[in-house]
Automatic annotation (TrEMBL):
<protein>
    <recommendedName>
        <fullName>Rad50/SbcC-type AAA domain-containing protein</fullName>
    </recommendedName>
</protein>
<dbReference type="InterPro" id="IPR027417">
    <property type="entry name" value="P-loop_NTPase"/>
</dbReference>
<keyword id="KW-0175">Coiled coil</keyword>
<feature type="coiled-coil region">
    <location>
        <begin position="194"/>
        <end position="286"/>
    </location>
</feature>
<feature type="coiled-coil region">
    <location>
        <begin position="132"/>
        <end position="159"/>
    </location>
</feature>
<feature type="coiled-coil region">
    <location>
        <begin position="501"/>
        <end position="535"/>
    </location>
</feature>
<feature type="coiled-coil region">
    <location>
        <begin position="397"/>
        <end position="473"/>
    </location>
</feature>
Amino acid sequence: MHIRIEAETRRGLRIIGEIPSIPLCRIEGYNGIGKTNAIKLLRLCTGDQPFTGNDHSWRTFRNQLKSARVSVTDLHGAQKLEWALDPSRWPQVAEPLGDLIGEIRIDGRSARPRDITPLLSVHHVMAADTPVSVLSERLSTAQKRIQEWDAEVGRQRQEEVELALGDLQNKITDCAPSQLSRELTITSETEKIAISLANQLKLARERVERLDRAVEISAQLTQVRGRGPEMDEKIEELAAHLADLDQQRQKLDRQIKNASAQKHQNEKAENEFENAQKHLVRRDKALRTIQSHLQNLAAVVGVEPTEDALAAARRDTSQHLNRLLERQPRVNATPMLLSLISSLTFSLENAEGAEHLGNELLISSSQGGTDWTVTALREALQHREAVLREEAPSADAEQLTQEIEETRGRLGAIAQTEAALREVEAAQTALEKAEGRLLKATKGLPEQTARNLEDLMSNRARLDQEARAVQADHARLTHAREVLGGGKTEDALVAELVQLCREANVEVARLRKHREKEQAEFEELTRREAQAAQQATLAHRNSENRISRVTATARFLSQNHGLSWLRRAFPKISSLPGLNVADQAQALTEVASAIDKARDSLGSTYSSLRGMETALGRLESRIRQNSGETGTETASDRAAKRWLADEVRQWFESEVVRTALFNGGNNVELDPDSLQLSWTAADGQTNERPLAAFSSGEQAFAYTQAQVARLDRDDNAATNRLIALDEFGSFIDAKNMSALASYLRGRQAQAPHDQVLVVLPLEVSPAIASSNGTTNERVNALRQRGYFAEAFQL
């Protein structure tokens, strides 16, 4: 590559202007002409910061450089790289410049620093460093890189990965097969208990109904025995009276018919009278039928069959029904409230357990009221649940529903009675019209006949009225008698009572006491059955929710595009949707276990990394202070030492180096505590030598070769590299310099796009002249720009 630098400087800063396109180039020149500054400037251009840790030198360099233009040609992968540098924009602290470096162009197109990284890199190797200082610097650099990575990327990345894994684990936590199995078992057991209690309740209800019927029959039997005979006798008397009245009416009807058949003016009047008489009989019969129906209805509702009495009964019954309906939502709401409280309590318990949110504020009062934490709200809900369960909500609801139906039935019966009363009034009106029609028909008869008929009809009307009154009394008493004994005789009631007591396995004398006991047990069983049904419903809902969470989680893990990495790590996830829910839960448990191990590994890795940072710092401090005290070693301390020993081993990996420094020995190793080198000589003997005992030339040669070899092992190296070996003349003698030249020429074939620049102090004085043209070219270059450049060879 060919490099040109045009720099405008102030106060003595100098930078050489050209590095020719010589793969293995040697530059010699006067001190202070800017050879090293040119390398530092090129490192800045390629994204490095050569002044790291030395802010003072950085500010001096920055302030003395007014502007610069740098161009690099003869590259592999690009024709020309250009930089237009503006140091006024650079920061005061020595840090990588990034986009602040200035304007960058690649083959004439605008570019950014990240576009330079894969094309060109600059590496500066200083021969003046001793092995101890180099080791110290390497340890310090490694430590800083860990610190920087941890601060800029590592800690945030660890938190991101930890959160991602934690979210997945939380999602899977609710899908454990043990939880699923437990909830399915609870659901099955609660359903069994609910079914068993429902069956027991059914049998208990039948027993209570049988005992209620027995008590009712016993009461009816008592009434029949006390009032039955008297009522039967009265009913017989009324029936006999009605029969007598009917006979009298029939006699009057015959007399009226006979009277109407005598002495009439014409046949038409006779026919009219006969029709009117028949019509009156029909109306009277209809009125008597409707009156009997009215009396029965009035007896059922227990109200006098008058308009005012019925209106008052309807008003009172409607008000009572409204009161019952107002109670119904409160009574029926209790089971729903219990279900809601159970669901809320379950969620709060999960928040307390898995999420550790018990003391977190959940509800904050904005008006000075009570603030509720998760635990406080859960305890309040559980207390309310206990109170509600003691109220036997299902039994109350059943009793209320029955009372509402009975009240509605009574209200309907009152309405029917009112309708029957209106029918009676209409029938009475029709009867009165029929009587008027008959009276009018008598006008067509002879005068004496008409007077006789009027007398007969008056008597008949009196008998009709009396018959209707007797019939009403008979209907009321008959209905009362039917209600009294259920329409049954004393013998029939006794037989039914005995049968019911036999079925209930109870003596008649102990019937009421036994019925009270059964009723109490029935009410307790009703409460237990309601609770069991609620618990079964809640358990079923919980198990359904658990199944839903398992299947949803399986579907999410197997289909979410952002979790392809998880499916690659755990291929079984892809087949989750095809498994039954139990196998899905088992597979998810395995995934959760793998994630748990990954989280442990992640924490362990980052802990080890930070431990390595601390260990590198301790090791660097011991090497710099030449202290052999190590104290208690950690695993990170041992790893840091192995890393350092491997770094030194690589210094002496080359056969050229081992030949020059160890007479061809091998197995070169470093003890990081004592900085003692050991190797196996050609004769098989183990030799030892302190690292500091090597001459400066030997150290510089070994270090330089090791640094270049380390660059050769970089898999992510840029396509083009400038490797500058600086300050070698004062440290490497002719023998080692010749060996270094041989080594560098030998690696050219493996790195054809590297340019190696060997920077040496001036060895040829300008005053020396000879017939050698090369020397004259060197002299001319020195006179013109203070340095010369040529191929490096010895």
